[in-house]
Amino acid sequence: MFDFSMEQWLLIAFLAYVAFTIGRMSKSGEAPEAREARRMAEETRAADAFASLSPSIQSDVDRLLMDKKKIEAIKVIREHTGLGLKESKIAADKRASQILA
Prior knowledge:
The chain is built from five helices and no strands. With about 100 residues, it is mostly helical. The protein has a domain at about 35-100. It comes from Hyphococcus aureus.
């Protein structure tokens, strides 16, 4: 039915790859400045939520992070703050960089 040569198949594959790459790059539709502002707002919310935890919960999270149990620390943060997974991970990463530095 389709009698393409090897060069034609390679051209089709290349064009498909280029189209896929361009589609992935433009998918977000968000300006870099807006993306950076959103990221900073997420970090601020995560830091504020962690600061609102009781000292005993904060020390539990610190202990888990020092024991390299990041997933458990994220679970504790999520459970006690109501943050989503992404923001809880941001809070855990930020706290880990503070206590392990």
